[in-house]
Design goal:
mainly alpha; elongated; about 75% helix; MetI-like fold
């Protein structure tokens, strides 16, 4: 029991600075109004996507040709309000925008997770070991960058077929280069520091050094890149859906709604306007939050 009490006394002071660090981080982030605005926007979009079946006023797949192309604010015979109007098949646009956020966020999170983990692993190995390992992965990255993404997406989806799973795989596998190069640059600097050299001198294994010493110090720039890259992935998913290469109808997607609405721009502007605004606001919020997170986590920048 005395040993347990001593252990508690030793561990308690270590937890307090960690909590203080998190409090300071959140305080610094909250001082940046643009970052706070972006965080609120992202939070609202994520919450709406999670609670889509509860907050959606209508079934996004329910069609009623007799109510097609109704303007925003129109009420049906039952007195039900359509705040954003209806589309060319009589489906409620607000309901489809809400459910479309689920596809956008799912693709964004899954693709960023795949490409981020793949890029982090390659960056750690390339930066730490160097030599032929570094040359191999960096030449592979150059080949990846030289290949136009849209052509790669069209080729792969043309073979595998358009689906949610294939979209995630294509975007995730083709976006690892940025993560790998950012992490590699950090690792090249970290491996020359005293604590890493001391661990090597003490005979620690390479895997232990990478996990315990190098990875925690390279995680911050990776997190910032992942946050900003999610906005790019959402735009890519919308573009592929616009071209008919994404999730297929009748599943609502923002890009698919834009493709449907482009035919009616002169007669029913709301079909394409509101999905476009959803993409704009979501991407803007993620970018603002990512910029604030970068400035907050960078010790060279002062609030």
């Amino acid at each position: 029991m005395p040993g347990a009490a001593t252990e508690t006394l030793v561990l308690a002071p270590g937890r307090t600075p960690a909590r203080r660090a998190w409090v300071m981080l959140l305080t610094r982030l909250a001082r940046r109004r643009t970052a706070l605005f972006g965080f609120v926007v992202v939070g609202i979009v994520c919450l709406t996507a999670v609670l889509a079946p509860l907050v959606s006023p209508f079934d996004p797949l329910a069609q009623d040709i007799g109510q097609r192309l109704r303007e925003p604010g129109w009420q049906d015979a039952q007195g039900r309000l359509h705040p954003l109007g209806t589309d060319h098949l009589g489906r409620d646009i607000l309901a489809r925008v809400i459910h479309g956020s689920r596809v956008a966020l799912l693709v964004g999170l899954a693709a960023v997770l795949i490409s981020g983990l793949l890029g982090m692993a390659i960056g750690l190995l390339s930066g730490y070991f160097g030599g032929r390992v570094d040359d191999f992965f960096m030449r592979l990255a150059d080949i990846q960058l030289a290949f136009p993404f849209i052509l790669l997406a069209i080729a792969v989806i043309g073979v595998l077929g358009p689906s949610l799973q294939n979209i995630i795989i294509v975007i995730g596998v083709s976006s690892w280069v940025v993560y790998a190069r950012v992490v590699r640059g950090e690792v090249l600097s970290i491996r020359e520091r005293e604590f890493v050299q001391a661990a090597i001198a003490l005979g620690s294994r390479d895997g232990r050094i990478l996990v315990r010493h190098v990875l925690p110090n390279a995680f911050t720039p990776w997190l910032v890149v992942a946050t900003l890259d999610m906005a790019r992935v959402i735009v890519i998913e919308s573009a592929l859906s616009f071209l008919g290469l994404g999730v297929q109808p009748p599943t609502p997607t923002w890009g698919g709604m834009l493709a449907d609405g482009r035919v009616y721009l002169s007669t029913a502007w709301w079909l394409a306007t509101f999905p476009g605004l959803a993409i704009l606001v979501t991407v803007l919020g993620i970018n603002l939050f990512g910029d604030g997170l970068r400035d907050t986590l960078d010790p060279r920048l002062k609030v």
